[in-house]
Amino acid sequence: MTDDKIITDKIISTLVIKMAEYNQGDTRRINHALKVFSFAQTIGRAEGLCPGMQFQLEMAAILHDIGIHESEKKHSSSNGKYQEIEGPVIAENFLKSLDICQECIDRVKFLVGHHHTYPAIDQLDFQILVESDFLVNIDEDQMNSAQIEAIKKNIFKTQTGIRLLNALFM
Fold it and tell me: What is the three-state SS of 17-69?
């Protein structure tokens, strides 16, 4: 294992713990983030993301819903629009405490701040984050087959994401 891999793995582990502590007592949201992270990690690796983009994807997956509690406080809603407003600032604070480069912070903030804005998908890491979130939300929200078909048609693009969607729900 290279030194860079050891460092990134340590940062990811630390970020998972920080996310769990931030959401202390909210098992549902902690588990949601962990499931999205797991799918994002799997899809990103299977799709061959470069190590830097994979690292940014994994950080964004862990933090993608980090703005929910602040959204509920400020806006009395966990609506995705409010998560996108509140999440990037919190994500930035987490990442700065881990000595992450500004370029990585900016990308993670962008992903956290747009993960419900599907027309903004601009790169493969963003596509994978959205697919991973949908794989978890389909189950958690108990979506019906018509909803799943529409999501498959309109959202999913990666071969790995489609394979997982088919394996889980088709």
Answer: HHHHHHCCCCHHHHHHHHHHHHHHHHHHHHCCCCHHHHHHHHHHHHHCCCCHH
